[in-house]
Amino acid sequence: MRGSDIRAKSASVNFREVRLDQPLIISDRPINFFTIAEVTLEVETRSGRSAHGHGQSVLSVPWAWPNSVLTVQKRDEALRSLVHHFVRSALDSPTADPITTWRHLTADLDRLLHDTTAPEGDPVPRLAGLLSLGAVDSALHDAWGRAWGRSSLAMCSAEHLPEDLSWVDDSLRGVYPADALSAPERTLEIQHVVGVDDPLTAADNNQARTLEHWLSRDCPAHLKLKLAGADPSVDAQRVVAVYELASQYQDELTLALDPNEGYSRPAVAEELLEEIARRSPLAAAAVDYVEQPISRDTTLERGEMAALSRRVPVLLDEGFDRLSDLPKLLDQGWSGVVIKASKGQTPAMVAAAAARAHGMWCLVQDLTASSFALAHSARLVSALTLTRRHLEFNSRQFAPDSNAHFGEHYPSLVTVRDGTIRLPEGDGVGLYGFGNTHSTRETTL
After folding, report:
1. Same domain membership, residue 230 and residue 98
2. What is the rounded distance in angstroms from the CA atom of residue 272 to the CA atom of residue 232?
3. CA pair distance 335, 434, nearest whole angstrom
4. Residues 186 and 143 in one domain
5. What local confidence, expressed as pLDDT, does residue 300 receive?
6. I need a surface site. Which of 59, 161, 320, 352 has the fewest CB within 10 A?
7. What is the C-alpha to C-alpha distance for residues 317 and 320, in angstroms, rounded to an integer?
8. Model's pTM, two decimal places?
9. 3-state SS class at 429
């Protein structure tokens, strides 16, 4: 028991549908729309102090739940119903810190996910379930910090938590989530996403939003290439073409390669790297890391992933849905993990601290996040000890209108200048460190 513990008293929920201006293709799956869950919680401390906190999560069905007998609409509805379930469960939870509450809410997660869609179809994947919990968890963290006038990230320490991270794995005894914090950066470099079918130049397509347009306007030095994942030779040709264009605008360019589970085995990703090197040694030298090259369900043979990670760091993304897997990943050959704000503040902080303790790579990536979901990602990039501190910011590309209202209040966060954005001035309190958090068109519980 800690004096800073909180209890959720009331809640409001809103769902905002975001339609993309153009599809974002990941492997063979187009993303045309997604739902953003917005949760606002009122909490009370043991001493009777009240505060509100806000959390948002991107419920991306094509990313988190790509295959099912259920339609996309049915899957989206299932995730929305889970958000309501987690809100009700949070309101029924005892007074505690947000991490203890998160552990309580996920204690029987697999059974809950099975029962959500039974007997209609397959169980909700854990990854999708974590997205549904994410907004609730983040709202609790935000309210926790606001109740005490402190950064909720800094509060994840021995002073405010009942135990260290040995509940994840005994090797993390003495480690706390706040150990992952570093000196905050207010100016962040962006990472620009190049979709599988994104045109490179005006000659390829008459649309204005070509890669050439973005390179000229926003000057990104970090590119993340979504690869088709079917033929490594075709993917290599795309990587080299992107590099040759982008290197005309940036002298120091980094490329991240993301097949989004498209390859059957790690060896196919090795073929990709060999083909890139054959076509362009300069492009090969610019490759910084590879993200989730194989399916999240692939069972690896011993040493299979290690052969690839010896050539370039390989990060787990879609396959990362259990914190307890973290200590095993290095033995499996993975170099590290990708964390996403939409899965919630608790798993983000815990994963960052565990990765730091084990000497693993750790990056923050997003899911076309906008508004406060984008602000959350930016705060994580700003504050955590990460291997690379750039902000993936593709809502400006695929759903710019989703940031319109937010940008009126916080223009520096959504306006790219010379490849960077800047976090708004603020007091550092709560999850975001600035501004008033609220939601509109809410359903009160």
Report:
1. no
2. 5
3. 34
4. no
5. 87
6. 161
7. 5
8. 0.95
9. coil
